[in-house]
Amino acid sequence: MTLAIVLAAGTPAAGLTTATGEPLADRLAAQLRLAGADEVRFAANLDELSDLVTTATAPVLITGTDLVAHTAVLRHLATSPVGPTVALVLGDPPVPGRTAVREERGQVVDAGALDALDGAATGVFGGALRVGVDDLPTLAAAARAAASGMLPVAAPIGPAGDVAPLPATGGVGSGGSAAAGGPGSAVDRLFAGLAALGTLIFAQRVRLLVAHRVEDQAGLTAAEAAVTAVDEDRAELRLSVKEKDDFFSTYFVSTWSPYVVRLSARLRLTPTGVTAISVLFALGAAVLFGVGGRPALVGGAVLLYLGFVLDCVDGQLARYTRHFSAWGGWLDTMADRAKEYLVYAGLGFGVSHAGLGNGWALAIAAMTLQTVRHMTDTWYGVLHDEAARRPRTATNASGGIGDRLNAASTRVQADTGSVSYWLKRTVVFPIGERWALIALTVALFNPLVSLIAVLVWGVLAFAYTGALRTLRARWMWVPVLDTVDATLHRDDGPLARWLPVVRPMGPLTLAVIAALGPAVLLVGALLSDAPEGLRWAVPVALLVLLVGGLGAGAAHNGPLDWLVPAALRAAEYLFAIAVGVVGAAPGWLIFGYVFVLTVHHYDLTARLEKRQAAPPLHAASLGWEGRSVLLTLAAIAGIAGIGLATLGAYLLVVFVVSVVLAWFVRPARSARASVAPAGAGGAAPR
């Protein structure tokens, strides 16, 4: 049950009445109910709020009594999928008594009095926040501390909630202290205290809709007029489109996709249903690309474009209807990759079917390149988020090429719509541009040209992003793999954990060396007239590959160790491809095996992004080194093709069973367990 609390303390707006004659606080309570709150309570002070929060078992919505906003603003805050704890952030100029905010990459990284932020404020706290279940104990501690004029001295606080007196001046940052002369209202002090405890808070910005904090009747009248002047439903439809998207999506999809969103909503389609339809469109395009012939290729290009439109619509529909779920987000991520690689398969078959060359080799290369790129994208995003949460040290605060690149990137991103802005967003070859390139080259030329174009642009984009990100990462010097389960995201199996640890070389160096052996074997097999004769070299390549396991137990805290998962993915894919080539396995079988591996690895990254636990049967996937050992045995026995098919089928079954267990069986068991006390005469926990 979602609890909403209206905190009435410490604001002159508590006694204001709206144009309809009702108290502003009562209207806020009604809006919170419309926003999804099951229960709305009023708290006269922070101590009372702390008592209410202590008994809560679901996310809690909190507002002051000075907020005038569209109901949609509160609904967006209540349903925001960006993280468990989210604060409303406004672009209004900070005023005395309000908490100023500095945010980076959507995270609140500093909060406090305006002068304490040294001119770095990017907004002001909007007087409303949603706090996730795991952060409720911290919220209660912050409320008690703020009520007593005390704030924690470190983050996170201990079980006893140790606090220290408020200093006379200062701001609130990660592990900092609050300003006595800064935030004045109770909700501002509460938010400042929550930030002081180091809570990860995401920012919810107001765009197109209206939200203002008011202090007097004149301000209330003006804010109500601003709210009335905006068509809420029309604004929400426009808000369903990403604020900053890529060039192709912005100008060739989002200009008309909102009409599809509204139609889908009227037809009561769910985002998951739209995702399923987009998969069918991509599958149809892949089949037509494989069939060949100009009509089929043009038809496939049209289906691919429409499939991409639906790929955008599913997310827009979720934002418009506010239907978010961890399952939907995970499924969308997995479907995006599956659709793209099915298209690569269709193109590869089409090249071979038309006698234009070895299409499967090109399709495998495109899939491998794109997957390794995605692995670096994921981990660089984690790196950037972690860097935003940490204060700059003296060694990386300023100066150096990394600092200049970071400043230049910030300037370009701020110059929305400029040529440099669009070049920066396009050169990295995002999915919209990839699908547009495929559709155009297939319709105008043939699948061979399409695959070559994807590979060339993909390699250039990888080189560009890799070089710049490496320089910026060395400047940031923020470890990320040591903040998560490195064994899980390395995809280590039992063998890697048993290998000795070689610390001086570092895990990234060892992972790169691991990829060199399979790469040399693959090149040799491709250049050889009789690749089957290189069967003896497979165990040698395996030994080089296993070098990557020597860094499994080492600390992954180097400035570039975020590249380790991508390097290990590349090493395993190259080894599997090399085994297939040496064992004379058909191209479609090698593609299928690597495709199953990518599904397994995308599952891990999707869970990382959605903050999910490991797949239920992760241990049964054997780890990258265990799978490679089995393929080596198959190659030595002369049954590489059978080995690829058998191991691929096994991994696919493990993946499917894990999905069923994680998303259907376990939630159903939890639901049954939660209602069991009701059957025994007790009240069901909420």
UniProtKB/TrEMBL annotation:
Keywords, comma-separated and alphabetical: Membrane, Transferase, Transmembrane, Transmembrane helix
Domain DUF5941: 491-669
Transmembrane segments: 272-291, 297-320, 341-369, 435-464, 507-527, 533-552, 573-596, 631-664
UniProt feature coiled coil, ranges: none
Keyword Membrane: yes
Keyword Protein biosynthesis: no
Gene3D superfamilies (alphabetical): 1.20.120.1760
Superkingdom of origin organism: Bacteria
Pfam families found in the cross-reference section: CDP-OH_P_transf (PF01066), DUF5941 (PF19365)
Family: Belongs to the CDP-alcohol phosphatidyltransferase class-I family.
Name assigned to this protein: Archaetidylinositol phosphate synthase
